[in-house]
């Protein structure tokens, strides 16, 4: 995993120059499949970076604080905690193996000393609590220092346990498990701005969950046709609006984006807004439908804009203008002449993500299967 330091390499004017910062993990070509990173997610403050891999593990990196002895150390991330989030499972009813690979990670806003995150594989979502311990209690009445029970007949006086310092210990404990709600593979999770609910999306449905309720969810989008032979598109990504808890968007394999308002109806079959860029007939080819599929959608922090990622480009949309994007950035235009070869080796089906920096001034397209290189900018 490589990181690019956006804050440490300023250029002239308002330009932002990206430069190499650090690398984590083995750089050898012979890497185990289970160690391949499948998703990354920064916490809201940027101090923590969570990565998930194909082996079902979550590794959290913490940004080092600047100190006088190492004035340039700020921005470097070191391992903070590692835990096994998911294990391989088997669906006996459908005779299908469920991979342990982590598809998405989302941090919840921090409200106390502990931090919480959601992680998901193809079928099961888990809520994890990440907490620190640097003290331990000693002087119990009914236990010895080594944990063995004391003889009650030999206890002649009551003791008040005291807290003593210990080496810092970071614990990851599962708090909730949300399962059995998706028939198809989960591709997105998004925490709502009310901090109480979140959504999960698969190819054909989007479900709404409450963080305290694990045994039921509400289906808010369902595009499954009565006859599966009539299926023409699937859901590729979904996200809640950062400020309006009733608004969400989801993208499709046809390159369209639908904005839904949950106040209009419980089942958002009818969208409030429909974003689609007209296709140039002269540029249409055999690969047009594949490369136009939107693989990721992200709201800006202000909520005024949203960014979408397809195979060759990144597009920025104004929520008040549905007809065309306000910006289009061709990030993989050099691949257009190689689409035939990419189709033959299935690389044309790779998925790519995108993200905003903290000030919404910079957009970043993150590569998918081949490598991961995302910003650690403080903006």
TrEMBL record:
MF GO annotations: protein phosphatase regulator activity
Keyword terms, alphabetized: Repeat, WD repeat
Family matches, as SUPFAM superfamilies: WD40 repeat-like
One cellular component term from this protein's GO annotations in UniProt: protein phosphatase type 2A complex
Segment forming the signal sequence: none
Organism domain of life: Eukaryota
UniProt-listed InterPro entries: PP2A_PR55, PP2A_PR55_CS, WD40/YVTN_repeat-like_dom_sf, WD40_repeat_dom_sf, WD40_rpt
Keyword Lipoprotein: no
Family: Belongs to the phosphatase 2A regulatory subunit B family.
Record's protein name: Serine/threonine-protein phosphatase 2A 55 kDa regulatory subunit B
